[in-house]
Please model this.
Amino acid sequence: MLRYSLIILIFLCFKNGYGQSEEIYRLTFSDKSNFKITTALGNKQPSQIYIINTTEPFYSKRFWLDGINLKSAKVLDEIKDDEHHLYHNVYLFKDEKLNSKFSDEEKKYLSAKAKLTKPKKINLKGTNYSTIKLSSEIKTFYFKTSEPIFSNDRQYAFINFTAFSSKSKNEENYFSDTCVIYKRTNGKGWKKSGIVDRLIL
Model:
């Protein structure tokens, strides 16, 4: 009896985690406002979102930069003009409002979770988005996504995706990088809490 109870508990935990990930995918790719950056440089925002059907690992430095004391005013002053520094390009918590919501321990937890992510097959389909096997047939933008990362208390979710501009069948160009943050609301599911994106020039 105990054995069956444990099996059911494990199944329910797995199902709950899987369902939450599916919901984050749905919220992310059905929301056209998440793709506004694709209109930069005179481009037209795609009406249909094509996502490569294998996830990309979540870049751990989004959450934590090892060996850099970001509480030091001297360190921040030294890197403020270095536009190529990871602090300016990938680190999420340079935003003061977002930073105030997470302790250093939570940031390290998220970074550790991100390091564990591996490429994974996904199958997504909605009214304006779907997964595809190859990018060669796409003439405009296509996207590669991470799987969602959840905070330790399961109150926040992060998902990262990259936009590519396909210039020819043999060439792909990084165009932009976006991280969307969701917060769980009592009895109302997940709600977008923030978005951080940048052009990759």
In short: The chain has two domains: 23-58+119-201, 60-116. The longest helix spans residues 2-30. Confidence is low (pLDDT under 50) at residues 4-17.
